[in-house]
Each structure stands twice: as structure tokens, then as C-alpha cells.
Task: structure prediction
Amino acid sequence: MTLHIPFDNSYSRLPDRFFTRLDPEPVAEPRLIAVNETLAAELGLTLPQDGAEIARVFSGTEVPEGATPIAQVYAGHQFGGWVPQLGDGRAVLLGEVVDGAGRRRDIQLKGSGRTPYSRMGDGRAWLGPVLREYLVSEAMHALGIPTTRALAAVATGETVLREAALPGAVLTRVAASHIRVGTFQFFAARQDKDALQALTDHAIARHYPGAEGPRGLLQAVIAAQAKLIAQWMGVGFIHGVMNTDNCAISGETIDYGPCAFMDTYAARRVFSSIDQFGRYAYANQPNIAIWNLAQLATALIPLMPDQDEAIEVFTEDVNAFPDLFNDHWGGILRAKIGLSTVEEGDIALAQALLTAMETGGADFTRTFRALSGPEPERARDEFTDRAQFDAWLPDWQARLAREDRSAADRIAAMQAVNPALIPRNHRIEEAIQAGVSGDYGPFFRLDAALKSPFDLAPADDDLARAPLEDEAVTRTFCGT
Ligand code: AMP
Ligand code: MG
Result:
């Protein structure tokens, strides 16, 4: 049996200036690290028993039948600075499949060699970011957050030069599409209205078939981003590099570079080593989403019949973001503290807990999870300064007394929204370190446990532990 992928490629039928056709570069010695069998089945792939063949295909060494490999072009604002041309510099889109649920999904190799968009880069990836994206994107999926997925990780048998010589790897990424805000910006900046129209039609047909025209698309993307960012914040996720080229039109989380989940809570928390001014800090993510969506709106203006009117209505649409976001965020906060009814002070009560956590040095995930247990007072143990929690607790208890559901129902509901397990930085680093020395055990263990983040096996308790002072990872890198 050979690896069969039922390709049905639509992006490669768009005009030539959307991409460059090229094959991925073969690698020296492809070796399969992991393949996501559940996802493969969902996509209608038949996986051969032979890991070697899977490794050849998902390293780009053998191009599967039906693939039309392309590197996509896009532009973007990176940290607010305009870059007129970016593009897949270390990735190749093999093609698309329509999955069992009728959804079109991209299959892309990341780390697959140089392309015309590589600029100074080598087109390759090292094992660290590949394992990191595999773990975190799959964890996000298990947490119920829209995201690109990881289909496979393959070691290349080649060395990649970064700060040191490191083992190379290729990640196979699955996405609803790889169309970014920056894809629209690329054509808008070139005043290529035909391309902009074709891209808009393609994006609508693919992601928002109910949307009418550019404005309908804009509104749909705004709504999707408002929900997504609220979901990120609900699990303490910091994307880290919310450039417009890393903002997917589909509403999926994309580009797991310097991302991280917070341990102790701080609204201004930043991990990325290159985010000096906290542009992409935890609590700044909604503001940055608005900034990015304003760029999308700007790119779509040329498609509107009346430019002045377009500016007016698009401004209105972008300005609707805070309300859309706050609806989701308020709902998430309410659920996280176990409220099923709505009272005026609820959001303030949840915010007061966040403030107490920040002042009291509490772990975000562990505090909410402890609060979801039968003995919620134990959440105080998560605080360095326990008085902060003790001051908040009576207000919460008083509010719970006005709820009309049983404690058991509340606990079950809270445990379904407050995960026990997140992919903590120090555990990811540990998995990467072991992987580099040839032991994928910690990677597999973490990946398996992260499949049920709301229901942790007692044997995996150690994975849910907060890092000790000397274990904490406070800086992350793009890893390119
Ligand atoms: P990212 O920071 O991953 O969003 O990437 C920003 C841009 O740099 C994109 O155009 C990437 O394709 C490109 N890039 C990142 N890493 C590499 C690499 N190793 N080789 C070539 N291009 C890269
Ligand atoms: Mg990117």
C-alpha cells in the first residue's frame, strides 16, 4: 500500500502571480518522528504501514501523486513595519483535500527548502520549532480553539545552522487555508484589483460562503478574530508574533513561533525575545487584532464602488470589534469562575481575581483549575501572597450563593472550561532537549496527555505542575 492523498487543489488554479510552482527539496535521510493518525483518517489519507514512505512524502523527498506544490506569496506588517513582499520562504503547499466533513484543508510542508521568498533564510527548520508547533497546535485543538493542525513531523538527517548546528526537521501542517491578511495586502499594495477580487472570491467561497462581497468578508473575519483572541486569552495563550502575515483569514491560530502559555499571570506578559516593547503582550492581543483588521479593511477598500463610503462603513465594522470581543471574553470569564446566570458585577468579579492573581503571583491555569475542584479554597495554595486570594474569595462565594445550579453541576461545568493541562514551556523545552538527543519519549508523553487537557490522568500530574524557579522558561524564540 502506498500513501494516497486525495488531492483537490484550488489555490494553484488561481492566477500565476499568487505563487511560484516548485517542488520541495529532498532531504538526506528522512525518518518519521510522528504521524497524526486521527487527523490522517479525518483527511481521507491512507497511511502505509511503512514509516519510511510516510517520511519520504512528509519530508518533501517524494512528491505524492496529485500534488501541485507551490510557495504562496504574501506581504505583511511585521511589528508594525511594512514589508511589501514575504511569502513561503521555508514552506511548500502540496495541495488541498476535502475532508470527511466537507471542509477543504491545505496540506503544507514547513521546513521544505528554499523558495523565491526565502530572502536570507535557508528554507529549513530545526527540530525544536517543529516539535513545538506539533505539540502546541495539537493542544490548542484539544482545548477547542481553532488552529492549524500537525499531521506529521519528520527528521531530515541534515544539520541546520542556527546559534549552533542543530538537527533538521519538517512539519506537515494542515490548515483551513493559508490565506492571511498579508495576502490581501500584497495585492492591494500593487494596486492589482483583479487579483484582489479573485482572492476575495476565493476566500469567501472557501471560508464564509454566506458573506456578501468584500464587506461581508471583512465582517466575517472580524467576528472570527474577536472570538479567537478571546479563546486564546481564556487559556493564557500569548501568540507572540501577531504580524499581519500571521493572521489567518479563516480564524484559525497560525504560526507557532515564539508563542507560549503563561505560568504565573501578568496582563503584560511577553515571552518573545524580539518583542521588546510588549506589542504582542497577553492583554494587548485584542488591540493588535484591531490593528491587523484595520489593515485588512484598508486592503479591501479598492474593491468597493465608493471609496469614501467604504472608509466610513469599514471603520464602523472595525470599531465593532471591542463589543464583539467583550461578548466572548465576558462569556469566557463568567464560565471560568463558574457562573451560569448573568449579573452586572460578574466581569468585575472575574477581573478582580485576575488582579489578585497578578499581585499575588498565582499560576493562571492552576488557579482556575483549583477553583473548579470540590474544595475551591485550595486555589489559595497557588498564590505566593495568599492574602490576595483570601480577600477575593468571600465575594465569589457570595455570588455563587445567588446561582441556582448545584455545586456538582458547577464543578463539572468549570472543569470543562478550565483545563488541567496546558503545554507548559518548560515541558516543551524538555521534550525538545530529549528529542535532540534522540529520545522522543517525553514528546510522545506530552502529546498524548495534551489530547485530553480537561481530564488529566493522575499519572500525568507532574505535567500539570507549575515550573520551579529554575525550570521556568521566560524567553521564547522565533526559531527560524
Ligand atoms: P515567521 O516569522 O515564521 O512568520 O516568518 C516570517 C517570514 O520569514 C516568512 O516570509 C517566512 O517564510 C520567512 N522565513 C522564516 N524562516 C525562514 C527560513 N528558515 N528560511 C527562509 N525563510 C524563512
Ligand atoms: Mg509567518
